[in-house]
Amino acid sequence: MARAYNFSAGPAILPTEVLQEAQRDLLDFKGTGMSIMEMSHRGKEYTAVHEEAIANLKTLLKIPENYSVLFMTGGATTQFSLIPMNLLGAGQTADYINAGSWGSAAVKAAKKLGKINVIADTSKAIPTCMPANSALKFSDDAAYVHITSNETIAGTQVKEFPKTKAPLVADMSSDMLSRPIDVSQFGLIYAGAQKNLAPAGVTLVIIRNDLAARAPDTLPELFQYRAFIEENSLKNTPPTFPIYILMLVTRWLIAKGGLEGMQKINDAKAAKLYAALDASSFYKGTAVKEYRSPMNITFRLPTEELEETFIKAASKLGMTSLKGHRSVGGVRASIYNAFPTEGVDALVAFMKEFEQKNG
Ligand SMILES: Cc1ncc(COP(=O)(O)O)c(C=O)c1O
């Protein structure tokens, strides 16, 4: 059976090798006669999976000792609220850098819970872009600074994270594990899993331990980072199957040469698509060049009708989910870690052919 070239922005493509291994394990995980989904989260088989997922993340990201890796639920959207609930004390202010729809969603959720200072806003900019670090004016006593590392809808990415005095909190939902990062530069990093990490259901949080002490005792325990640190994300039943797939994905990444290796592959894939856009006057990239995302490549055709024809024709050839987000339209090719280079080549070839016929 042929696998589609699945350009979905999320839930997104997973490595074929990982799916094959999960398939092999599905009826009988390590001679237990059951799948990992069907066994206790406190048993020795699941414990080994849980610990390996954490260990692999620590290896890949070189996570310092004073940070914890947490597996939570509720997606990145829940983190939009949990972050101010845990880190923003009464009367304090948090700085937000807003570069798109996801930054705006984070701001909206945080505003319900405390005082938010939007220190830069490019969320409505056309072409899409990110604020320059040199333009950022931080509040003197911000409790934290929030940033979105990759704007999945706008197709933009932070290339260099700003140096901040207050802890930097980053939504890395759509580029987590796609490139090396210096974890020590952040107070908290979070990502919904369903793009680069695993199926939907687990949210990865990496937090500097001292920040977890800020949460008020009145906060329900399952909303506290502190409780997740203390119980190793096992206070209640974690999403065991997504964590198992995350473990396999991190194993796959280590075998691929880690994040340096992955970044090279990702950059090469993105360069092919951006070169195709730049060589054409028929297709038009929607992001300012210096902020172009290697994960979500967004572009337009001369008319909406042509875009619809393009997306339908590509889909017939097995290149699926190229439709841009419903809020902006256009075309979006999401090419996360697991997306194969051959799929990018196929899209580039199809773009040339389509332009010849319709340009
Ligand atoms: C950058 C970013 N942040 C947050 C979200 C929301 O994530 P979730 O659906 O896991 O709550 C998304 C989803 O696409 C995203 O791309």
Structural class: alpha/beta
Q: How far from one another are the termini?
A: 34 Å
Radius of gyration: 21 Å
Q: Please name the CATH topology of the largest domain.
A: Aspartate Aminotransferase, domain 2
Structure at a glance:
By secondary structure, this protein is α/β, with parallel strands linked by helices. It is 35% helix and 16% strand. The longest helix has 21 residues, at 258-278.
Description:
The protein folds into 2 domains: 16-255, Aspartate Aminotransferase, domain 2, CATH 3.40.640; 259-358, Aspartate Aminotransferase, domain 1 (Alpha-Beta Complex), CATH 3.90.1150. The protein has 9 helices and 14 strands. The chain has helices spanning 16-25, 44-61, 75-87, 101-111, 225-230, 240-255, 258-278, 304-316, 341-358; strands at 5-6, 67-72, 93-98, 115-121, 145-148, 150-151, 156-157, 168-171, 188-192, 203-208, 284-285, 296-300, 319-320, 331-334. The protein has a 7-stranded mixed β-sheet, with helices on both faces. It is 35% helix and 16% strand. Helix 1 (16-25) packs across helix 6 and helix 3 crosses helix 4 (101-111). It has 359 residues and is α/β, with parallel strands linked by helices. The two termini are 34 Å apart. 46% of the residues are buried. The protein binds pyridoxal-5'-phosphate (PLP). Pyridoxal-5'-phosphate binds next to helix 3. The site of pyridoxal-5'-phosphate has 11 residues, from helix 3.
List keywords for this structure.
single chain; 9 helices; alpha/beta; Aspartate Aminotransferase, domain 1; 359 residues; Aspartate Aminotransferase, domain 2; 2 domains; seven-stranded mixed beta sheet; binds pyridoxal-5'-phosphate
